[in-house]
Design a protein that fits this description.
Layout (H helix, E strand, L loop, with lengths): L9 H43 L10 E2 L5 E13 L7 H12 L3 H8 L6 E7 L1 H10 L4 E10 L7 H4 L11 H5 L1 H5 L4 E2 L4 H18 L3 E8 L4 E8 L12 H4 L2 H4 L2 E2 L5 H10 L8 E3 L18 E3 H7 L2 H11 L1 H11 L16 E2 L6 H8 L4 E3 L1 H12 L26 H14 L5 H4 L7 E10 L5 E14 L6 E8 L13 H20 L26
Parallel strand pairs: 1-5
Antiparallel strand pairs: 1-2, 2-3, 2-4, 6-7, 6-15, 8-12, 9-10, 11-12, 13-14, 14-15
Helix pairs in contact: 2-3, 2-4, 8-19, 11-13, 11-17, 12-17, 13-15
């Protein structure tokens, strides 16, 4: 009897099924193990990357002032990490660590009970903290050599230099703008003179305290090389202390804040008209009558027929408005574009603001009011750039924070004598009044400048009725322009027991005088008693007082 061939009998089939099932089970198990190991490796790698994050930036470059003084550098520091999974007596350790490291117990517990293999316990600890940690004898607390960013002058240079986060990533100022260069160990040398910076800051603090102002700023520009020698914005912050990182403290008002510049715009407007050939020194304008519903702060007792110089010296809104109208909207806008009032200042800082103007409704009235600094806002650096350009024979000055940086300079003015006309106006403001002049004049040194007093904008709309910006911008020496000095105070208050109006002449002119004295002493600038460039009768007085200036 022949037997049939069978591929599998029932027993064989069962056996095969068991083998297949076993193989699949083993495969799945090994697969899951692999997935777990891959995840674990990835997590570990991520933890390691966190551990090494700072060490990648440990060779961050230094930042120096123009004289080689270190403004920012990195020093060796110790940081602590833990593997929470290896910590046993967590409750006991939490209480000890909280006291040693001056951290809340909640923060310590979150770290100790974290489901990770690597957690930073505390970064950049002090030597005392480190010694106390060693004394604990906890072998699962690891120490790491890191680098900590320090700023020897702290608040003095904070708005320019900026600051970094704990991983040495630039967050503001030069630290942010040149973050890649600094991270690659390249040093940065600034135009700032830290000695001058300290003196300016001290003077500004004194003025703020005297008038109980909400804030203040000061900037000094070297016209010849476009170098920003000093830039102060108060309140400021300590880059090494996070508690000082308040929103108001972090604002760099020189670069970031837009203001209506008030009467400091008047010499600019007059120079535009002169450069276009629309006005000259002999032309007169009647300032006694309202113009386009524009009025001056004070009614003049003379006939009110003022030439351009007297309009600027008296700080007449009506007179300046008439000049601006003659210039016209088109010419005004074109000049603003040439001088850089239409865009951000191209300076080595990411925290810079665009000027603010009413571009959608720029009519005759707006042209007139903008002429005397109302209805158009720029940053203080915009104004400083404009004054520097007009003082340098009309060649564009591009402010910089980097030493020995050069840039192309284009001619802004058409008329060769326009710059001299501008400087004459500024010198007349100082030497032809008994209100501004005595507050800023220094024997043996010729100074020119212009005051400004304007209403502060209300963020909710309109203007504050009782809050002003007072300012003064000076050119020194006026016979051979070298420095532009600008200061401004937000909302200065009357001194106790007085009823004096807070104006640029009263508040800021004396401040600029103190700063110029510091410049003279610091840079050993000799006296010059000769009046070579400008012929001005210093005994002539237009007026004793005008609240508009």
């Amino acid at each position: 009897m022949s037997s049939k061939f069978k591929l599998f009998d029932s027993d064989s089939l069962k056996f095969v099924r068991k083998r297949v099932f076993f193989s699949i089970t083993v495969f799945i198990f090994l697969f899951l193990i692999s997935i777990y190991r891959i995840s674990d490796i990835m997590l570990f790698a991520n933890n390691i990357s966190q551990e090494k994050l700072v060490s990648q930036n440990e060779l961050r470059g230094n930042i120096y002032d123009r004289n080689g003084n270190i403004l920012a550098t990195s020093i060796e520091s110790i940081s602590l990490s833990i593997n929470p999974q290896k910590i046993k007596n967590k409750e006991f350790l939490s209480s000890k660590l909280s006291k040693i490291l001056d951290l809340e117990s909640k923060i310590i517990n979150n770290k100790l009970f974290a489901n990770k293999k690597f957690v930073w316990l505390k970064r950049n600890i002090t030597p005392i903290e480190y010694q106390n940690i060693i004394n604990l004898g906890e072998i699962n607390i690891r120490s790491h050599k890191e680098y900590k960013r320090i700023y020897p002058f702290r608040n003095v240079s904070s708005h320019i230099v900026g600051h970094v986060n704990i991983d040495q990533k630039g967050l503001s100022g030069i630290e942010r703008f040149y973050d890649n260069d600094l991270s690659n160990s390249n040093d940065i040398i600034l135009t700032i003179d830290i000695n001058l910076q300290q003196l300016v800051r001290k003077n500004l603090i004194n003025a703020i305290n005297k008038y109980k102002a909400e804030s203040g700023l000061a900037v000094i520009l070297d016209i010849e090389n476009s170098n920003i020698l000093s830039s102060i914005s108060l309140p400021d912050f300590n880059p090494e202390n996070k508690k000082t990182y308040k929103e108001n403290n972090l604002i760099n008002r020189v670069f970031q804040s837009n203001y209506e510049m008030g009467s400091t715009f008047k010499p600019i407007t007059a120079t535009i008209g002169f450069d276009l050939g629309l006005i000259n020194s002999e032309m007169t304008f009647n300032v006694k009558k309202k113009y386009l519903n524009i009025s001056d702060y004070d009614q003049y007792k003379d006939d009110g027929n003022y030439n351009v110089e007297k309009i600027v010296v008296e700080s007449s809104n009506i007179g300046t408005a008439q000049i601006a109208t003659m210039i016209g909207k088109k010419n005004q806008i074109n000049f603003f574009k040439k001088i850089g009032f239409d865009k951000k200042i191209n300076v080595e800082n990411m925290e810079v603001a665009n000027p603010l103007g009413n571009k959608n409704n720029w009519g005759k009235l707006e042209t007139a009011t903008i002429g005397f600094g109302h209805g158009f806002s720029v940053t203080p650096l915009h104004l400083v750039k404009a004054y520097a350009t007009l003082s340098k024979n009309g060649y564009e000055v591009n402010p910089t924070l980097i030493l020995n940086k050069t840039s192309k300079s284009k001619k802004i003015l058409n008329n060769e004598s326009s710059s001299k006309f501008f400087l004459n106006l500024l010198k007349a403001v100082v030497y032809k009044t008994e209100y501004t002049g005595p507050r800023v004049k220094i024997d043996g040194y010729e100074i020119g400048g212009k005051t400004g007093t304007s209403e502060l904008l209300n963020p909710k709309g309109g203007y504050y009725k009782d809050r002003n910006l007072t300012s003064f911008i000076g050119v020194f020496p006026i016979n051979d322009p070298k420095y532009i000095i600008y200061t401004a105070l937000e909302y200065p208050k009357k001194e106790k027991g007085t009823n004096q109006k807070m104006t640029g002449a009263r508040v800021n002119a004396p401040l600029v005088r103190e700063i110029i004295l510091d410049i003279i002493n610091l840079f050993n600038i000799p006296r010059n008693v000769k009046n070579e460039l400008l012929k001005v009768d210093t005994n002539f007085t237009y007026r004793i007082f005008n609240a508009a200036i």
